[in-house]
Amino acid sequence: MKTSIATVSISGDLAEKLTAIAAAGFDGVEIFENDLLAFDASPRDVGSMVRDAGLELTLFQPFRDFEGMPEPQRSRTFDRAERKFDLMGELGADLILVCSNTSTVSLGGIDRAAADLRELGERAAKRGVRVGYEALAWGRHINDHRDAWEIVRRADHANIGLILDSFHSLARKIDSNSIRSIPSDKIFLVQLADAPLIDMDLLYWSRHFRNMPGEGDLPVKDFMRAIAATGYNGYLSLEIFNDQFRGGSARSIAVDGHRSLVYLMDQVRREEPATALDVPAMPDRIAAHGVEFVEFVANDEEAGALAAFFRSIGFRKAGQHVSKQVTLYRQGGINLLINTEREGFAHSSYLVHGTSVCAIALKVEDAAATVERARALGAEIFHQQVGPGELTIPAIRGVGGGIIYFVDQGPELRKIWENDFELVEDANPPGHAGLAEIDHVGQTMVYDEMLTWLLFYTSIFRTKKSPMVDIIDPSGVVRSQVIENDDGSLRLTLNGAENRRTLAGHFITESFGSSVQHLAFSTDDIFAAAAALRANGFEPLQISHNYYDDVEARFGLDPELADRLRAENILYDADAQGEYFQLYSPTHNEGFFFEIVQRRGSYNGYGGPNAPFRIAAQKRSLRPKGMPRI
Ligand code: MG
Ligand code: MG
C-alpha cells in the first residue's frame, strides 16, 4: 500500500508541507501547481526537495480545459501542454492530471475527446511522461468517471490512463461498482476524499468542504473496494480542499490524513481480501464496553474540594493506591480517582492544565490488541513507571495529550482494584444517590481539532458517529457530535468550540487545552437521586423557570410532573423511543461539571434541545455578582 497526499491539502509553504507530509509517513506527494508557483525555488530544486524528503513525486496537477477545444484554442492548448511537460521534466514528475474541460467554448463528443487525448498521449510518450484523465463532477461535457473511462479506452494509448477521484464520483452518487470492470493498468492514480453531506453547489462543496476518508459521510469505502477489486496496486492519494485544514496545523492534518488511509484500507482489506494493495494486517476495530475509571489530577488543596464535590453526589472513598497519592471514590459501577502525585505524567498534566481529568480507562475486549491497533494507526503508546508488583495497564495518548488506558473485560478488571489499591470502607459515607454507570463522557476541544478526535476514536474502536449538530451558547455556536457503540455502553460527546466566549471555549482557555469537560452518570430514578443529593447538601444548577412552562406545554406533560421537574431543576426531553431527565451540577473550577441522567425507554439522545438553557444557567452560575459577562 503506497500513500500520497496533494500539497493543496495542508497549510504552510511548500517546504513546510513537504516536511509535515514526510513526517506523517506518506510515501509520495502530488505537487499542486499553485504551490510550486508561489514558492521561491526552481522546479529542479523543488524536485530535489521532494526526493530529499524521502518522497516520490506522484502527480503534477492540474491541467485544465484541454479536450474538445475548437481551433484556434486547440493548438494553443497543445502548446500549453508541451510547456507543462518541460516543467515536469525539471521537477522529475512522470504523471500529469488533466481534468475534464469546463470551458464554455469546449465541444462535446466522446470521439473528439478521445482523439485529443490520443494525440496528447503521442506527445507525452516522446517526453517520457504519462497523462491521467479525470472527470470533474462539474465538467461541461464529461462529469462521470464512466464517460472518462470510455474516452481513455477509445484513446487507446499506453501513455493515457484514468484518474479516479472519490469526491467527483460519490458527490454525483455514481455507482462505484461501475469501476470494477476497468483494467487496473489503465487506472493511473486514485485520489481519495470524503465530505460531509451538505446540499450545495458541487464546485463550492468540493473546494471548501472535502475531508479525510472516514471524517465525512460519503461511501468512500465502497468506492475503494471497487478499485481494490480491479487489482490496482498504485498510489492512494489524498486530495483534500478544506478551508479549516488550510488554516490548521500542517503536522496534525498530515497525521490525520495518513491515519485515514490506513483505517480505510484496513476496512477494504477485510471486505475485498484479494486486494493487490498489500495492506498491513492489524487487529480489527476494538469493541469497547464503557469506562472503568476516570482519573483527575489536583493539588492537595483542590483535591479536598473535588472530593467534597464527589461526596455531595454520593461517592464514597473506597480505596488508596498502594504506592501513589491516588484515592479511589466509588458509587455503583463508577470509579473516580484523584491523583495528587508530585511527579510523573499526572503531575505534568496538572502543571499544564490545572485540576482536570488526566486519564480515562476504557473496558475493552482485548487490551493488548487495542494498543496494537492504535499503534498501527499512528497513536503514541504511553509508558509509565509502576511500583513493584503493580499492574502495567496498556495505554496510549489521546489527541489532546490525555491518557487512555485499556483494561480487559472480566476478572482482569477486579485485579486493578485488588492489586494496586488498598480497599477501604468510608468511615463517614455520604448518602448513596443510586448512580450506576458513566452514561457519557463529554470532551471539549477547539473546533479545528474535532475531526482529529472523531477519526481517532472511530478508527480504533467499533463505534459510530452521529451527524454534527449546532448548540447555541449565548456567546456563540458550539458544534457537537457523538461517538457511541451499538449497545450504548460507550458514549462520548465531542464539543467543538469556535470562540473563547462560549462556555466550551472558556473552558479550553482556562484549562489550556482540550479535555473532559463533563461526566454524565446514569440513574434509574432521577427524583430519588435528586432527593439524596439534596440531603448531601448538593445544590443543583438553577434552571430558568420560563423553561418549565415551555417544556410542560411542548411535551404535554402532566402538571404534577412539570412541578416536580421545576422543584428539582431537572431538564426534560423525549423522542419517539423514550424520555430523558437531566440534573446538572454547577460548574467546578471554571467549567468542569457533572450531569446525572435517567433514560426511560430507548431514548438515545443527549438532551440536545436543552443545551442552550443549561449553558445559559451555567454561565449565570459562573459569573460572580457584579462581574461582566464572559
Ligand atoms: Mg482530483
Ligand atoms: Mg451531557
Describe the structure.
Strands 17, 18, 19, 20, 21, 22, 23, 24 and 25 form a nine-stranded mixed beta sheet that branches. The chain has an eight-stranded parallel β-barrel with strand order 1-2-3-4-5-6-7-8, surrounded by seven helices. The chain folds into three domains: 270 residues, TIM Barrel; 136 residues, Roll (2,3-Dihydroxybiphenyl 1,2-Dioxygenase, domain 1), CATH 3.10.180.10; 187 residues, 2,3-Dihydroxybiphenyl 1,2-Dioxygenase, domain 1. The protein is built from 21 helices and 25 strands. Helix 19 runs antiparallel to helix 20. Helices cover 37% and strands 25% of the residues. It starts with a strand and ends in an 8-residue tail after the last helix. By secondary structure, it is α/β, with parallel strands linked by helices. Strand 10 and strand 11 form a beta hairpin. The structure holds magnesium ion (2 copies). One magnesium ion (MG) binds next to loops.
Report how far the terminal alpha carbons are from each other.
50 Å
Cofactors, ions and other ligands in the entry: magnesium ion
The CATH class label of the largest domain is: Alpha Beta
What's the CATH H-level homologous superfamily of the largest domain?
A: Divalent-metal-dependent TIM barrel enzymes
Strand content: 25-35%
Instruction: Tell me, briefly, the overall form.
Output: elongated
What's the total helix number? Answer: 21
**Low-confidence blocks of residues:** 625-630
The CATH architecture designation of the largest domain is Alpha-Beta Barrel
Rg for CA atoms: 28 Å
Counted up, domains total: 3
Tell me about the largest β-sheet.
9 strands, mixed
Sheet/helix structural class: alpha/beta
Give the helix proportion (percent range). 25-40%
Q: Strand tally, please?
A: 25
CATH topology (level 3) name of the largest domain: TIM Barrel
